[in-house]
């Protein structure tokens, strides 16, 4: 039989174990409580955050925006692809929310086409526009900017729609404050390169050749130019990989493209002209392209005279090697592509004949023979 002391010790041990279990149970309950509360708060916060996000996504991207963007909906686009296009175009905040909104409203019958949509539009306005196949606003006026135009000439086209003179518009286009504002809005294309002190006009070559549609509240120089710069930025973004591959800046590419644009005819392969410029730059040979001389002179004329070749200007590629300080006109897509993808040749010379044909040569002797055959010696 166990002694009284042993029984007492066993009783105390059992009591201690029971107390220890109680303490463990209390600790476990506390941990479970903390986890439960934390999880509840997390889920509650996430739920609240989700509600706030959806509520925000249902609202216009920018209710105060007056900008309208050209959005293309291709034939056969699904609701998902339409939603993605609108999100990529910054017309809506979230494509998924827009898609479920359409399903909830049981909307259908969207039509393919070109739309002018604004970040200020509501979901219902966007849906109505896509269903009717028409833009929300009627075009008030259009501005057509051809390839190879000088900034001064583009100013004349803008002036016709703003009630200002060509000189007043041109002054705005070269105003330092305006230039700075545009650089902030379009940092990809408008870099410090355009502020080089040798450059005649910072925005020369940056207003992309195209036909632009404008509306009644867009008849200001700022609104008109902003849409042109936006187009330039969109076009060049597509060639970002090629720019990096060629190790060319946007400014250099547009400068070279402008030379090609000015020298090319409709029938010539611009990639061959591009190769001549690349080959000359590689060996340190002056580009000797007449359009740069005329640009330096600041006059439009059919022929370049021998006396013009001596004009003292950083744009004169007869007396300076390499590219001029900046573009001498606005280049189209074909010239930009040629500037980024020259043909591989050994040509160092090309000659435009009066008939519009362009002849290429590897040597000066060959070039002079062709020149004697096709070009009058009169100056």
Automatic annotation (TrEMBL):
Site feature location: Important for catalytic activity: 263
Keywords for this protein: Cell membrane, Cell wall biogenesis/degradation, Lyase, Membrane, Transmembrane, Transmembrane helix
EC annotation from Swiss-Prot or TrEMBL: 4.2.2.29
Subcellular location: Cell membrane
InterPro entries reported for this sequence: MLTG-like (IPR003770)
Main location: membrane
Membrane-related topology note: Single-pass membrane protein
GO biological process, one term: cell wall organization
Gene3D superfamilies: Classic Zinc Finger, Endolytic murein transglycosylase
Record-level Gene Ontology MF annotations: lytic endotransglycosylase activity
A single Gene Ontology CC term: plasma membrane
Annotated segments matching region Disordered: 1-20
Domain of life: Bacteria
Membrane-spanning intervals of the chain: 31-54
Catalytic activity, reaction form: a peptidoglycan chain = a peptidoglycan chain with N-acetyl-1,6-anhydromuramyl-[peptide] at the reducing end + a peptidoglycan chain with N-acetylglucosamine at the non-reducing end
UniProt key word Ligase: no
Main EC class the enzyme belongs to: lyase
Keyword Cell membrane: yes
Function: Functions as a peptidoglycan terminase that cleaves nascent peptidoglycan strands endolytically to terminate their elongation.
Family under the similarity heading: Belongs to the transglycosylase MltG family.
Protein name stated in the entry: Endolytic murein transglycosylase
Originating species: Bacillus oleivorans
Gene symbol of the encoding locus: mltG
């Amino acid at each position: 039989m166990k002694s009284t002391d042993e029984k007492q010790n066993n009783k105390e041990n059992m009591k201690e174990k029971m107390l220890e279990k109680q303490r463990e149970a209390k600790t476990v309950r506390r941990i479970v409580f903390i986890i439960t509360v934390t999880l509840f708060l997390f889920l509650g916060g996430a739920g609240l955050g989700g509600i706030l996000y959806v509520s925000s996504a249902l609202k216009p991207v920018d209710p105060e925006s007056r900008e309208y963007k050209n959005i293309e909906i291709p034939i056969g686009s699904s609701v998902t692809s339409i939603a993605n296009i609108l999100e990529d175009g910054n017309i809506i905040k979230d494509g998924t929310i827009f898609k479920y909104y359409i399903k909830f409203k049981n909307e259908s019958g969207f039509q393919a086409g070109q739309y002018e949509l604004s970040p200020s539009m509501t979901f219902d306005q966007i849906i109505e526009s896509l269903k009717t196949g028409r833009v929300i606003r009627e075009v008030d006026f259009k501005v057509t900017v051809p390839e190879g135009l000088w900034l001064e000439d583009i100013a004349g086209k803008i002036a016709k729609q703003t009630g200002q003179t060509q000189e007043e518009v041109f002054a705005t286009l070269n105003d330092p404050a305006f230039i700075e504002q545009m650089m902030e809005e379009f940092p990809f294309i408008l870099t410090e390169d355009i502020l080089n002190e040798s450059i005649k006009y910072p925005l020369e070559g940056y207003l992309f050749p195209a036909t632009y549609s404008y509306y009644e509240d867009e008849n200001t120089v700022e609104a008109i130019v902003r849409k042109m710069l936006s187009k330039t930025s969109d076009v060049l973004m597509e060639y970002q990989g090629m720019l990096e591959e060629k190790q060319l800046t946007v400014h250099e590419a547009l400068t070279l493209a402008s030379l090609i644009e000015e020298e090319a005819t409709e029938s010539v392969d611009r990639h061959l002209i591009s190769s001549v410029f690349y080959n000359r730059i590689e060996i340190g040979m002056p580009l000797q392209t007449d359009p740069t001389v005329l640009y330096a002179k600041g006059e439009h004329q059919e022929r370049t005279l021998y006396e013009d070749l001596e004009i003292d200007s950083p744009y004169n590629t007869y007396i300076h090697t390499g590219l001029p300080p900046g573009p001498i006109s606005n280049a189209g897509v074909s010239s930009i592509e040629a500037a980024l993808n020259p043909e591989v040749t050994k040509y160092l010379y090309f000659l435009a004949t009066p008939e519009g044909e362009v002849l290429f040569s590897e040597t000066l002797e060959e070039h002079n023979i062709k020149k004697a055959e096709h070009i009058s010696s009169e100056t």
